[in-house]
Amino acid sequence: MVCIAVDAMGGDHGPAEILSGVSLFLEAHPDARVQVFGPLDQLLPLIPAKFESRIEPIDAPDIIGMGEAPTRAFRTKKNSPIYKGLDAVKNGRADAFMSAGSTGAVMAFSTLILGRHPRIERPAIATVLSSKQGPVVMLDMGASVDSKPHHLFDFSLLGTAFSRAVLGVQTPRVGLLNIGEEPEKGGVVEQETFGLMSAIGSQYTFVGNVEGRHIFEGVADVVVCDGFVGNNLLKFGEGVASLFFDFFRTESKASLRSMIGAWLLKPAIKSFYQRYDYSEYGGAPLLGVNGISVIAHGKSHAYAIKNALLRAYQSVNGQLIEKMDSALS
Q1: In angstroms, rounded to a whole number, what is the distance separating the alpha carbons of residues 187 and 80?
Q2: 166: CB partners within 8 A, 6+ apart
């Protein structure tokens, strides 16, 4: 059985919401089990009786705050859910780790406990976005900034391995996010990266530079960028989506005609929301470390937690680490 270690104390909604997501996941995947880490007095009352044989509570009373410095937490909180959960992966007691807690802490602990792949200088956070042609892997989404050309080249290999292992794309199309499509566009970093990615050979299909508008058109299966750019692009997209739905809710109540129109469009709007909602894809894996570590959004509810666990489960079954080793070799 696939075993996933879960930080039950991460996120904005507390362990009850995390355990609800765990239950949804286990209901759909009878070949999986979960280790949940947190204070036992809080965890034990939340474990459903029907899943007692597949949910193992493990005491981890040290809680890491969202604003706490990751390096200090690593030194002082060895009994935290993040530390103990990742240690379970490191020592083979679990196959993957998932947390909706502090992104900085999960990144730092994953790197220090699991270790970086020997070929990788900087791990990358990969996010799956929806496009007209299907899912698109975008990285880095905030693990590092001021990336050099060889870092961005490594990200292309990591994204390719993830696209193959989890999304089933045999020969991913990879694009470099830039301010124009021509090879000479961008700064020195982008131009040098373009040269490195152009010489990749058969590892993936390099489609060249892609602009922001191309991401949702599906011209590439993997889009590579610096973490500073990727993180801001992701948050801008979340803000635009929120603005759209707030505007629709407000305007749909403006008149009887608007209310009728909104009722008629409700199925289409719901479908659009589900397609582009972050909770559909659950969590973002940290690629480039020697183990599977998935970071969920801090505001995740049970459905998003279920899908974050699904992302970890797919990474295990798809042999992500083995395919990453192959791509980086």
Answers
A1: 42
A2: 285, 311, 314, 315, 318, 320
* Pair 116, 289: CB distance under 8 Å: yes
Inform me whether the pLDDT recorded for 278 exceeds 70: no
Residue 137: is its pLDDT beyond 90? yes
**Bridge partners of 130?**
135
| Other C-beta atoms lying within 10 Å of the C-beta of residue 130 | 19
Using CA atoms, how far residue 165 sits from 35, 151, 319, 323, in Å, is 24, 21, 6, 7
pTM of the model: 0.86
In contact, 236 and 212? CB cutoff 8 Å:
no
Gap between the Cα atoms of 269 and 88, Å rounded: 42
Token pair of 150 as six digits: 């060889």
Using the structure block, give the residue that is written with the tokens 């750019």: 229
CA dist list (Å): 252 to 77, 216, 239, 267: 49, 26, 20, 14
Copy the structure tokens of residue 67: 């604003």
**If we measure between CA atoms, which residue out of 174, 70, 139, 119 comes closest to residue 286?**
139
- Whether 249 has a pLDDT exceeding 80, the answer reads no
Domains of the chain listed by start with CATH number: 2-115+289-320 (3.40.718.10), 124-283 (3.40.718.10)
* Residue 284 to residue 294: CA distance in whole angstroms: 5
